[in-house]
Design a protein that fits this description.
Chains A, B: It comes from Sedimentitalea xiamensis. Chains A, B: Pfam families: Asparaginase_II. Chains A, B: This is Asparaginase. The structure is a homodimer. Chain A is α+β, with helices and mostly antiparallel strands. The first copy, chain A, has one domain. Helices cover 41% and strands 19% of the residues of chain A. The first copy, chain A, has a five-stranded antiparallel beta sheet with strand order 4-3-11-10-9. The first copy, chain A, has a four-stranded antiparallel beta sheet with strand order 2-1-13-12. The first copy, chain A, has a two-stranded antiparallel sheet with strand order 5-8. In chain A, helix 4 crosses helix 7, helix 5 runs parallel beside helix 7 and helix 8 packs across helix 9. The longest helix of chain A is centred in the middle third of the chain and has 15 residues. The radius of gyration of chain A is 19 Å and the shape is globular. The termini of chain A are close together. The model of chain A has no long low-confidence stretch (mean pLDDT 97). Chains A and B meet through strand 2, strand 5, helix 6 and strand 6 of A and strand 2, strand 5, helix 6 and strand 6 of B.
Chain lengths: 327, 327
């Protein structure tokens, strides 16, 4: 999928699988094995957020598009994220201690340096998944369910599983525990792409699940800075596509994309889990689909990105393989 | 070489190549393609340091085993490293501005947080390669050569190339520019393992190059904390082997090992460049060779390491593949 060149040598190579799927669930294009079973990790947060909307919880608690974007986010822990998630917690009458995601040092430099300078440790609200967890807490409150909302048997996770199986069109063969302690359900790459195509075509349908999916896509593309953060691939590439496409990264080399204008879903998994390769590969596929400009500065940051060393000298390049470009 | 499991699923997989070579240059054991051409990156710093000793520069400037360990190091930028490299610069009558490695934020938490709290940016002495560059500056001063010591035509780099080709037993097919701006010469994985076997058997020979190699190995195993730093694989695994083996990591998934008691050299390259896999794989090979205890806590940190999430829950494991263990 992606090669790393230095001087005249191919220094490293990332293999992987990718699927482009239409709204009927059919594979339009694939690389590698579309039926490989993966954990989508954070790439499926919009699926995990569906019950928040379909249950009526989002309406009851007056959640805006900003809240919904944060529910789908792997954020940087910058003030724009933690202020909003903190206010959301207040609104629910909950505190940081009600989260079950664990603390994480923010990736945002200002927030990170601020904590270090204050000799403070991060809170759970800084966790990149705190928006998803605020969504879980909201749904749990709406359902009147217990506090251990990441337990596999908890109604919140069972609702997430139902939404996951409905949109992927497959029974999940199992789950792993994610970095944020929530269950992450396995599916095939084809299943994940099918779920993304469900979101891509949602605005054409009027059923409750589709209306919720359309709202979540709208929230993601409206607030790209809330879905990830400044300097991050999801934010920068969504901005470069001017609201035409929603994309979401996941740990261990997963990336998903929702392309409403073509009613297509995209899912990819780098076999070795490398983010540099998932970012380069999703950019290459979006360029191929004609929805991302190859010459946009944001695209150039992830696809055909120069490798700069500590004196700013260009020593190599990270680029899609010829298979991915031409195949 | 290494697999990453989460729940019941193989989530990610790292392919790679590895070679164990004896002191005659013959392959004792290999995985993948031993003739694959790689950049050794920092794994060959002890080779780059050979001319520092063979030229007489180390003797002339009174370098101790600490200096030589730092010349072979990819260090954390902790005070134990930067204090010593800073004093070395002083001794040469040079300043931080004479380095050509570029600045780098230290990986050492105390040093990193100290800079952030002081609103300071890192210097070149913080660069993980600053010991190697202090060695280059020393050799350059000894040779009376010019200040641009990372240029490919500079006598320092030509001396490094000669040592590299002598110990690998191969003409280098080319070079790339490393993260620290020094040329990094390409060779086969077999060539790198052969160079490591040259170091492993050096104390049996009395030629100048071999005596220099033996001194460098002695320096590395005597000062494991200078070769990397607290919490790092090279330091922790060398300590676990009680001075019996010298090991060195390199960027993009390279690892090399020198096993004097068996006169063996080891070199491995993870195809995708992942450090988590090169660390796990070198530990597995050292266990196989009988020089590293599989049950030592340091071994367990890199081989069969549990993946802990942000609440400290074990969610998976990073382990060698059955091919690597049994093959």
């Amino acid at each position: 999928m992606t090669e790393v060149r230095r001087g005249s040598l191919l220094e490293s190579l990332h293999l992987g699988h990718a699927v482009v799927c239409d709204d009927t669930g059919q594979i339009v294009r694939s690389w590698g094995d579309p039926e490989t079973v993966i954990y989508p990790r954070s790439s499926c947060k919009m699926v995990q957020a569906l019950p928040l909307v379909t249950s009526g919880a989002a309406g009851k608690y007056g959640l805006t598009s900003e809240h919904l974007a944060l529910a789908c986010a792997s954020h940087n822990g910058a003030a724009i994220h933690t202020d909003r998630v903190g206010a959301w917690l207040d609104q629910l009458g909950k505190t940081d201690g009600d989260f079950r995601c664990g603390p994480q040092m923010p990736a945002d430099e200002e927030a990170c340096h601020g904590l270090i300078r204050a000799y403070e440790t991060p809170c759970q609200v800084h966790n990149n998944c705190s928006g998803k967890h605020a969504g879980f807490l909201t749904l749990s409150a709406h359902m009147g369910a217990g506090p251990e909302y990441v337990d596999i048997d908890h109604p919140v996770q069972q609702a997430a599983l139902n939404a996951f199986e409905e949109t992927t069109g497959l029974s999940s063969p199992g789950y792993g525990i994610d970095g944020c302690s929530a269950p992450n359900f396995a599916t095939t790459l084809h299943g994940l792409a099918r779920a993304m195509a469900f979101f891509a075509s949602a605005r054409d349908r009027s059923d409750r699940q589709s209306r919720a999916a359309a709202r979540l896509v709208e929230a993601m593309v409206r607030h790209p800075e809330l879905v990830a953060g400044e300097g991050r691939a999801c934010t920068e590439l969504m901005r470069a596509m001017n609201g035409r496409v929603a994309i979401k990264t996941g740990a261990e080399g997963v990336f998903a994309a929702i392309v409403p204008e073509m009613k297509l879903g995209v899912a990819l998994k780098i076999r070795d889990g490398a983010t540099r390769a998932s970012e380069c590969s999703i950019a290459a596929i979006l360029v191929r689909l004609g929805v991302l400009d190859a010459d946009h500065p944001a695209t150039r940051k992830y696809m055909n990105a120069p490798i700069l060393n500590r004196r700013g000298i260009e020593t190599g390049i990270i680029k899609p393989t010829s298979d991915l470009i031409a195949g």
